[in-house]
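Reading a protein record of the kind used here takes only a little practice. An example makes this concrete, so a full record is given next.
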Amino acid sequence: MAAAPVVLILGSGPRVGACVAQKFASSGYKVAVTSRNAPEGKTPEGYLSLRADFTKPDTVPAVFEAVKAEFKAPPTVVVYNAAALEFPPEADSPLSISSEKFTIDLNVNAISPYVAAQQALAGWDSLPKGTKTAFIFTGNILNTVVAPMTEFTNLGVGKSAAAYWIGVADMAYTSRGYRFHYADERIENGKSKGPEIDGPAHAEFYAQLAKHEGDVPWHATFVTGKGYMKFH
């Protein structure tokens, strides 16, 4: 009997993270969740809970080691759901954000997920050939537009940087059965869903991506109830 697949959710909050965890658990996955203030051990749902600080990319490998130690297998699906932004000290001046704060947020939004993708890839190489694997990054529209809000500066830079390396990784590794996706929920006219993102819709779409269902590209824009939709 094949071992149950493992999903690792990096940055598991009460909306997207919680819904994704529940969906994958109900689909037979063993689940590991992380957040900065998470209690170590098991959650009431039976998930492995780990503390992780994504402002420090060099701590990411230890999370993967802990998951492998617990489940005797690396995660087949990795969901990166952490994000950070910084309000400028001068509201109308994005360049008033200090380089230190800029770097911290870039670590969360682009560099820690990059390290997580490296760790995922290393684990996938140890799995039986044909195992369906996926790295799914919770993105938004900021990799395609410049929002007229200075508080999105650090977030937009990070999302744009992550989107680029995710696209390159997907092109490089798809032939090996490894998928990388930048997931971005929209409304039907293609505009941003903004703060009204739908947790259950993310969960359903991420489960589809994990199964490699449909011809979904790395830039995985989707709409609640409709799944992947291409927007220009």
Q: What stands out?
A: The mean pLDDT is 95.
